[in-house]
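Entry 14. Ran structure prediction on the chain below.
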Amino acid sequence: MATGCAVSGLTGTPGTSGIEVRSGSTVQNCSVQNCTVLYGIQDGRGSTVVNCTATGNSADATVGFSAGISAPDRCLIRSCTALGNTHPTPNNAEGGVGINAGFSSLVVDCQTAQNDGDGIRIAQGTRVTGCHCSANGAGGAGAGIHAYDFSTGDAGWNQIIDNDVIFNVTGIDIDTTANMVAKNRSGGNGENFNILNNNRVGPILIPNQSGAISGTGDGEAAGMGSTDPWANFTY
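Output, C-alpha coordinates:
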Protein backbone atom coordinates (compact mmCIF):
# COMPACT_ATOMS: atom_id res chain seq x y z
CA MET A 1 0.00 0.00 0.00
CA ALA A 2 1.16 3.52 -0.83
CA THR A 3 -0.47 6.19 1.31
CA GLY A 4 0.10 9.93 1.47
CA CYS A 5 3.02 9.95 -0.98
CA ALA A 6 4.07 13.06 -2.88
CA VAL A 7 6.45 12.97 -5.84
CA SER A 8 7.43 16.22 -7.52
CA GLY A 9 9.97 17.28 -10.13
CA LEU A 10 11.29 13.76 -10.83
CA THR A 11 13.07 13.15 -14.13
CA GLY A 12 13.05 9.41 -14.67
CA THR A 13 14.63 7.27 -17.35
CA PRO A 14 12.28 6.42 -20.25
CA GLY A 15 9.66 3.90 -19.15
CA THR A 16 9.67 4.75 -15.45
CA SER A 17 6.82 5.96 -13.23
CA GLY A 18 6.50 8.43 -10.40
CA ILE A 19 4.73 5.81 -8.24
CA GLU A 20 4.58 2.15 -9.32
CA VAL A 21 3.00 -0.71 -7.37
CA ARG A 22 2.49 -4.41 -7.98
CA SER A 23 -0.71 -6.40 -8.37
CA GLY A 24 -3.33 -6.17 -5.64
CA SER A 25 -1.98 -2.94 -4.19
CA THR A 26 -3.72 0.23 -3.00
CA VAL A 27 -2.51 3.75 -3.77
CA GLN A 28 -4.39 6.43 -1.85
CA ASN A 29 -4.03 10.14 -1.08
CA CYS A 30 -0.92 10.40 -3.28
CA SER A 31 0.21 13.02 -5.79
CA VAL A 32 2.69 13.06 -8.66
CA GLN A 33 3.34 16.40 -10.30
CA ASN A 34 5.71 18.03 -12.77
CA CYS A 35 7.66 14.83 -13.43
CA THR A 36 9.16 13.52 -16.67
CA VAL A 37 7.93 9.92 -16.56
CA LEU A 38 5.97 7.42 -18.63
CA TYR A 39 3.22 7.22 -15.98
CA GLY A 40 2.63 9.46 -13.01
CA ILE A 41 0.97 6.61 -11.09
CA GLN A 42 1.10 3.04 -12.38
CA ASP A 43 -0.64 0.24 -10.53
CA GLY A 44 -0.65 -3.51 -11.10
CA ARG A 45 -3.49 -5.90 -11.83
CA GLY A 46 -6.39 -5.85 -9.42
CA SER A 47 -5.20 -2.69 -7.68
CA THR A 48 -7.02 0.36 -6.35
CA VAL A 49 -6.14 4.02 -6.82
CA VAL A 50 -8.21 6.41 -4.71
CA ASN A 51 -8.06 10.14 -3.94
CA CYS A 52 -4.88 10.64 -5.97
CA THR A 53 -3.72 13.41 -8.32
CA ALA A 54 -1.41 13.41 -11.32
CA THR A 55 -0.72 16.91 -12.64
CA GLY A 56 1.70 18.48 -15.08
CA ASN A 57 3.64 15.33 -15.91
CA SER A 58 5.32 14.84 -19.28
CA ALA A 59 6.71 11.84 -21.12
CA ASP A 60 10.08 11.51 -22.78
CA ALA A 61 9.87 12.03 -26.54
CA THR A 62 11.15 8.50 -27.19
CA VAL A 63 7.87 6.90 -26.04
CA GLY A 64 4.56 7.36 -27.83
CA PHE A 65 2.21 6.62 -24.97
CA SER A 66 1.99 8.24 -21.53
CA ALA A 67 -0.59 8.86 -18.82
CA GLY A 68 -1.05 10.62 -15.52
CA ILE A 69 -2.65 7.50 -13.98
CA SER A 70 -2.51 4.08 -15.62
CA ALA A 71 -4.03 0.75 -14.59
CA PRO A 72 -3.72 -2.52 -16.56
CA ASP A 73 -6.81 -4.63 -15.79
CA ARG A 74 -9.40 -5.36 -13.09
CA CYS A 75 -8.56 -2.16 -11.26
CA LEU A 76 -10.55 0.52 -9.46
CA ILE A 77 -9.72 4.19 -9.99
CA ARG A 78 -11.92 6.38 -7.82
CA SER A 79 -12.07 10.08 -6.90
CA CYS A 80 -8.84 10.90 -8.72
CA THR A 81 -7.74 13.97 -10.69
CA ALA A 82 -5.49 14.04 -13.76
CA LEU A 83 -4.72 17.56 -14.92
CA GLY A 84 -2.42 18.98 -17.57
CA ASN A 85 -0.38 15.88 -18.38
CA THR A 86 1.50 16.38 -21.63
CA HIS A 87 3.44 14.68 -24.40
CA PRO A 88 5.98 16.32 -26.73
CA THR A 89 4.41 14.80 -29.88
CA PRO A 90 1.42 16.85 -31.10
CA ASN A 91 -1.88 15.35 -32.29
CA ASN A 92 -1.26 12.17 -30.33
CA ALA A 93 -4.41 11.08 -28.46
CA GLU A 94 -2.53 8.33 -26.58
CA GLY A 95 0.23 10.65 -25.38
CA GLY A 96 -0.44 12.78 -22.32
CA VAL A 97 -3.56 10.81 -21.37
CA GLY A 98 -5.22 11.72 -18.08
CA ILE A 99 -6.39 8.28 -16.89
CA ASN A 100 -5.74 5.03 -18.74
CA ALA A 101 -7.71 1.93 -17.69
CA GLY A 102 -7.22 -1.51 -19.18
CA PHE A 103 -9.58 -4.46 -19.14
CA SER A 104 -12.55 -4.98 -16.79
CA SER A 105 -11.84 -1.94 -14.63
CA LEU A 106 -13.90 0.74 -12.90
CA VAL A 107 -13.29 4.49 -13.24
CA VAL A 108 -15.60 6.30 -10.84
CA ASP A 109 -16.06 9.96 -9.82
CA CYS A 110 -12.82 11.18 -11.41
CA GLN A 111 -11.86 14.46 -13.03
CA THR A 112 -9.60 14.91 -16.04
CA ALA A 113 -8.80 18.27 -17.60
CA GLN A 114 -6.40 19.91 -20.03
CA ASN A 115 -4.46 16.76 -20.81
CA ASP A 116 -2.71 16.62 -24.19
CA GLY A 117 -4.38 13.33 -25.12
CA ASP A 118 -7.57 11.58 -24.04
CA GLY A 119 -9.04 12.47 -20.68
CA ILE A 120 -10.07 8.88 -19.89
CA ARG A 121 -8.91 6.09 -22.19
CA ILE A 122 -10.35 2.58 -21.83
CA ALA A 123 -9.94 -0.80 -23.53
CA GLN A 124 -12.51 -3.52 -22.89
CA GLY A 125 -15.12 -4.41 -20.28
CA THR A 126 -14.61 -1.19 -18.29
CA ARG A 127 -17.24 1.03 -16.68
CA VAL A 128 -16.77 4.81 -16.53
CA THR A 129 -19.34 6.63 -14.41
CA GLY A 130 -19.71 9.91 -12.57
CA CYS A 131 -16.66 11.47 -14.22
CA HIS A 132 -16.06 15.05 -15.39
CA CYS A 133 -13.77 15.47 -18.41
CA SER A 134 -12.99 18.93 -19.76
CA ALA A 135 -10.63 20.49 -22.31
CA ASN A 136 -8.78 17.28 -23.10
CA GLY A 137 -6.99 16.89 -26.42
CA ALA A 138 -4.95 19.99 -25.63
CA GLY A 139 -2.16 18.57 -27.81
CA GLY A 140 -4.48 18.62 -30.84
CA ALA A 141 -6.19 15.23 -30.60
CA GLY A 142 -8.09 13.47 -27.85
CA ALA A 143 -11.50 12.84 -26.32
CA GLY A 144 -13.05 13.38 -22.94
CA ILE A 145 -13.74 9.63 -22.81
CA HIS A 146 -12.28 7.31 -25.45
CA ALA A 147 -13.02 3.60 -25.87
CA TYR A 148 -10.23 2.76 -28.27
CA ASP A 149 -9.81 -0.16 -30.66
CA PHE A 150 -7.30 -2.22 -28.69
CA SER A 151 -7.49 -5.23 -31.05
CA THR A 152 -8.92 -4.85 -34.52
CA GLY A 153 -12.42 -6.24 -34.75
CA ASP A 154 -12.93 -7.13 -31.08
CA ALA A 155 -16.01 -5.82 -29.26
CA GLY A 156 -15.59 -3.32 -26.43
CA TRP A 157 -18.23 -4.28 -23.86
CA ASN A 158 -17.61 -1.00 -22.03
CA GLN A 159 -20.21 1.01 -20.13
CA ILE A 160 -19.98 4.81 -20.30
CA ILE A 161 -22.75 5.96 -18.02
CA ASP A 162 -23.64 9.29 -16.37
CA ASN A 163 -20.62 11.45 -17.19
CA ASP A 164 -20.01 15.09 -18.14
CA VAL A 165 -17.73 15.93 -21.08
CA ILE A 166 -17.15 19.55 -22.08
CA PHE A 167 -14.68 21.53 -24.21
CA ASN A 168 -12.76 18.47 -25.45
CA VAL A 169 -11.68 17.91 -29.04
CA THR A 170 -14.21 15.06 -29.02
CA GLY A 171 -16.64 14.49 -26.17
CA ILE A 172 -17.19 10.72 -26.24
CA ASP A 173 -15.26 8.69 -28.83
CA ILE A 174 -16.13 4.99 -29.36
CA ASP A 175 -13.97 2.98 -31.78
CA THR A 176 -15.39 -0.48 -31.01
CA THR A 177 -18.77 -2.23 -31.05
CA ALA A 178 -20.99 -3.61 -28.26
CA ASN A 179 -20.55 -0.73 -25.82
CA MET A 180 -23.28 0.95 -23.78
CA VAL A 181 -23.47 4.77 -23.77
CA ALA A 182 -26.21 6.38 -21.69
CA LYS A 183 -27.12 9.27 -19.36
CA ASN A 184 -24.15 11.42 -20.42
CA ARG A 185 -24.02 15.20 -20.88
CA SER A 186 -21.83 16.54 -23.69
CA GLY A 187 -21.38 20.19 -24.60
CA GLY A 188 -18.94 22.64 -26.13
CA ASN A 189 -16.77 19.92 -27.68
CA GLY A 190 -15.39 20.08 -31.20
CA GLU A 191 -17.52 16.98 -31.79
CA ASN A 192 -19.86 15.91 -29.00
CA PHE A 193 -20.17 12.22 -29.95
CA ASN A 194 -18.22 10.02 -32.36
CA ILE A 195 -19.60 6.50 -31.98
CA LEU A 196 -19.05 3.50 -34.26
CA ASN A 197 -22.09 1.55 -35.43
CA ASN A 198 -23.44 -1.52 -33.57
CA ASN A 199 -23.36 0.01 -30.09
CA ARG A 200 -26.17 0.44 -27.54
CA VAL A 201 -26.72 4.19 -27.17
CA GLY A 202 -29.44 6.01 -25.25
CA PRO A 203 -31.28 8.76 -27.17
CA ILE A 204 -29.09 11.82 -27.84
CA LEU A 205 -31.19 14.94 -27.34
CA ILE A 206 -30.69 18.69 -27.55
CA PRO A 207 -33.07 20.33 -25.02
CA ASN A 208 -34.88 23.47 -26.08
CA GLN A 209 -33.53 26.74 -24.71
CA SER A 210 -35.51 28.33 -21.90
CA GLY A 211 -36.82 31.84 -21.64
CA ALA A 212 -35.66 34.18 -18.89
CA ILE A 213 -36.26 32.73 -15.43
CA SER A 214 -36.41 34.66 -12.18
CA GLY A 215 -37.52 33.85 -8.68
CA THR A 216 -38.73 30.36 -7.92
CA GLY A 217 -41.05 29.91 -10.88
CA ASP A 218 -40.27 27.57 -13.77
CA GLY A 219 -42.86 28.85 -16.22
CA GLU A 220 -40.20 29.65 -18.83
CA ALA A 221 -38.25 26.42 -18.39
CA ALA A 222 -38.32 24.50 -21.66
CA GLY A 223 -37.83 21.05 -20.15
CA MET A 224 -35.28 18.45 -21.19
CA GLY A 225 -37.31 17.00 -24.06
CA SER A 226 -37.43 13.43 -22.78
CA THR A 227 -38.52 11.30 -19.86
CA ASP A 228 -36.25 8.47 -20.95
CA PRO A 229 -33.96 7.81 -17.95
CA TRP A 230 -31.18 6.59 -20.29
CA ALA A 231 -31.09 9.66 -22.55
CA ASN A 232 -27.83 11.45 -23.38
CA PHE A 233 -27.91 15.23 -23.76
CA THR A 234 -25.93 17.76 -25.78
CA TYR A 235 -26.02 21.45 -25.04
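The CA atoms of residues 73 and 103 lie 4 Å apart. Will compare against last week's run tomorrow.
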